[in-house]
Amino acid sequence: MGRLKEFISRRKKFEPEGHVVSGRLAEFRLMKLTRAVSGDALVLEGVRIPDPDDGGRREIDMVIATKDEIIFVEQKHWSGSFTITSEGRFFQRRKNGGTLMHKDIVAWTCRKGDLLCNLHERRVGEAAPPSRVVLVFSNKNLEWDPLPEDVPAEAYDEMGFINMVENLKKTPPNELLKETLLGFGTWDTIHLNGGKTLHGDILDYPFEKKDCTVIHSGILGILTGPKSTLSTSQKITDQSGPLVAVVGEDRSRIIPFANIAKIEFSNPRKEWG
Asked: Which residues contact 2 (CB under 8 A, 6 or more apart)?
């Protein structure tokens, strides 16, 4: 690739989609509010647990663990309204007139919670404390009715959820459970030039895995040679980059450092994670 094309690739902007931004901001806000009232309870986000049935990993939006219980939280920032079908699926009517048929998010979250609790019991030889599933519908523009009595979950809006957390007996979990929970990884995060964020697994990385920011050369780079400089000191002058399995994409791909503004790696996983 010539100098001009290398320069252009470093100036290209990847704009985030509006609904993705609002959803991520809602997740950040809920986590911040939860941690503000959680006391000694352990609160984790984006907990990814191995799924022995398919060899992949499943993500739980939020886990709250105390001495007495574990709460598995699934957050949805839907708009419009929804109803629950006889099969347990969530049928959403969006504000723009479109419709979406979601999976049975209660059963799906229950299964992920069971995977976590079963793994903990196999690891330490003792059962995890009782658990429950909680749905949080954080968008004020969503119209919804209370869940049917036979649905094995609780549901709240944002402030209803925070009030529930405030009223918990917020004792810390025992050390074995805490160790299990902290042994799971989260997503690797890549921030592209322009503000778009990608989550996934960095499968191959050419350097030591350390969080970094990337600075790209300016207009003079056309004369001196365009380059991208990592805060970990490496200099990149081509279209090389990490190999990433991006969430929602069928195949892994290389994302050039030329397109990247920042990389944040997942916390290290233990052998059970």
From this structure: none
- Of 3.90.930, 1.20.140, 2.60.40, 3.40.1350, the CATH number of 18-182 is 3.40.1350
Both tokens of residue 136? 């949080």
Q: Which amino acid is at 51?
A: D
Q: Which of 34, 7, 151, 21 is nearest to 82 (CA)?
A: 151
* Residue 140, φ and ψ in degrees, nearest 5: -65, -20
Is 221's pLDDT higher than 80? Answer: no
Residue 103: CB atoms within 10 Å: 11
Decide if 246 contacts 202 (C-beta within 8 A): no
- What is the tens place of the pLDDT at every residue in 30-86? 999 999 999 999 999 999 999 998 778 899 999 999 999 999 999 999 999 999 999
Residue 18 pLDDT exceeds 80:
no
Which residue bears the tokens 């599933």? 133
Q: Within the chain, where are the H helices?
A: 3-11, 18-37, 105-124, 158-166, 175-182, 221-224
| Residue ranges per structural domain of the chain | 3-15+194-264, 18-182
DSSP secondary structure of 57-118? EEEEEEEEE-SS-EEEEEEE---EEEEE-TTS-EEEE-TTS-EEEE--HHHHHHHHHHHHHH
Q: Quote the pLDDT of residue 1.
A: 67
